[in-house]
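Support request, please re-run this one:
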Amino acid sequence: MIVLSDSALDALLAQDVPYGDLTTDSLGIADQPARMSFAARAAMVLAGSEEAARLVEKAGGRVTRVSPSGTRLEAGAVFLEADGPAGALHRAWKVAQTLTEYASGIASRARRIVDAAPGVTVACTRKNFPGAKDLSVKAVIAGGAVMHRLGLSETLLVFPEHRAFLPGPPEDWIAALRRKAPEKKIVVEAGSVEEAVALAKAGADVIQLEKLPPEAAAAVIAATRALTPPPMVAPAGGVTEANAAAYAAAGCRLLVTSAPFFGPPADVKVTLRPA
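Re-run finished. Output below.
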């Protein structure tokens, strides 16, 4: 599945090669037959390979092999091979490499959190780099996680910044939300155990714990277990591969995180040589 449109891929190529490749053209090697391969320098989860392949094709190359996004790669594993004129492969080389490196970095970090908490759903927030949502979402899914929210239009999530404008008790505005959007879950962010329990008793479906430790999550789960139905308790803020298992052990079945979006790209080796 390719999530970036042809026009978006054209724009990426235009940014990098707006007026031709001065070096390749000046050396007079653009028409020589060539082949190119992409390989993982270290173990990683692949993402963006379909877009990389399409970039090669749009630049004038021919893809002979490509592994799908979501593939676990060991160090040295080749995931894309192409041939064609050297000029075409040089045009696609760096854009395709960089795209797969950044997307695979996100996918690999997401997978490490998923692996750290088996049986728990890992949901990534919308805090991807602005303008990179499509590829970021694809990378999250390739890593085995899901999206927490794609944007503001499809989910109800009440932050303290919303509640500052609501004079009544939480029972009132939760009931109003349920009347306005009866098919939606009502998610409310809480900054303490006491606040979380009060919001759960007021009728919130999901309590999102803002930067509370695993022991606090366990306390909220214990205090709300008898409610009918009990709320889902979802830690958010500061959830990483280092503490995902502790949250799972506390009884959390959903972890909300931005961590996959922040970190180094994966390292991809490109080999480009005469055919």
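The longest strand covers residues 33-40. The mean pLDDT is 97.
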